[in-house]
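Researcher: I'd like a structural prediction for the single chain below. Treat it as a standalone chain; there are no partners to consider.
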Amino acid sequence: MADTDNKMEKIVSLAKRRGFVYPGSEIYGGLAGIYDFGPRGVELMNNIKRAWWKAHVYDKENYFGLDSGMFKHPRVWEASGHVGGFSDPLAECRECNTRIRVDKELANVGVVADEKMSIEEINALFDANRESIACPKCGAKNFSEARAFNLLVKSNLGDFTSDGGEPVYLPGEACQGIYLDYKNIVDTMQPKMPFGVAQIGKAFRNEISPRNFLFRTREFEQADTQVFVRPNENKELYEEIKRDRWNWYVNGLGIDESKLRWKQHENLVFYAADAWDIEYEFPTGFDELEGIHDRTNYDLTQHQEFSGTDLRYTDPETGEKYIPWILETSVGLGRMFLAVLSDAYHEEEMDGETRVVLRLKPDLAPVRVAVSPLLRNKSELVEKAREVYKMLKQEFGNVAWDDNGNIGKRYRRQDEIGTPYCVVIDFDTLGENPSLLDTVTVRDRDTGEQQRVAISELISVLK
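Model: Treating it as a single chain, here is the predicted structure.
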């Protein structure tokens, strides 16, 4: 088995074993493409969201946050093109009924099936390469023709007749809410061009073949920004946004820059001026992490036409009216979570044995610091350790109490969940060595080095 496969298996195993990610509905046999974030996973995810929000709202001028409702008028998805064109090519194995996504299977054998191709064009490629594509379940090469399978997930919200005449959909992407509230934001916030709107929201896709753990799922969150600019004033700001997004992954999340690369879209959709992806080298290879798109005026033009509402921006100084162009950044937070986890995962030698460690940035770690009494059966050590624990918990919040097993096992356990520092209260803390009274041992996750720190200085040292 390839090393990349081994690493993904190890990450999936650690994620469940240490409370990061659980399979959805596992006690009923699971549900493909659905995952639950456990106690440590939700902390890591919240820290990632917090870092993203700070970078995209608090650290920027003229950017506004939004949280739009998931359910939207059915016409929204007609205007956006999702009802007519939001589909993947599906084929079924005639031997075991396993369904495959044809464009991905073609990509695996080196054939590009572009998303803008018609189903007839994809079938022509499929027919020419059938002998190279085997069913992932039974190995047969006997497939049906490819057909377009719409990915929108239907709901019966408000449909009291049950005739399905005007279906409501769960959001196929989160960003449509930004376009719908664009006019409200202009009217209430009076922004000057250019301005941005940031949102973290849920999206649902009826994926044919969910795969690679959190990389492709049926329920996920997207972190999007839509930057509204004057027509034809897009190029310079687009390049600035691209640089900003790259630098944030390196400096904001601590991602290894050598595992990132750019990929430009070769065949643009008709309305786009440019489109690039930031790709990350996941354990399964390089694949899309985030998209940065120059969408011109397509989205607001479509919603103006379908809704009948004037969505032109009026320049407050000149009175000029125009439909703004949009520069978009969009990333699935599950993919970002997986990239952070993959990048942080290391196996290395320490003290003569192999350890697994997550080298997470301290601000991202689900536990900022773990506090331990040297011995759990010595009441005086436990009492003092609880004092230190309460003090640190009041300051940092995400502080763990760990008295299970010997100190070495505690260190290894905390290394596996990425805890940057372990604080140990020992007999010197109590004054066995008078010169070390009211000091503790602070152990660094990455180096394994330990230092004595006065309790009175502990918070400032950890910060």
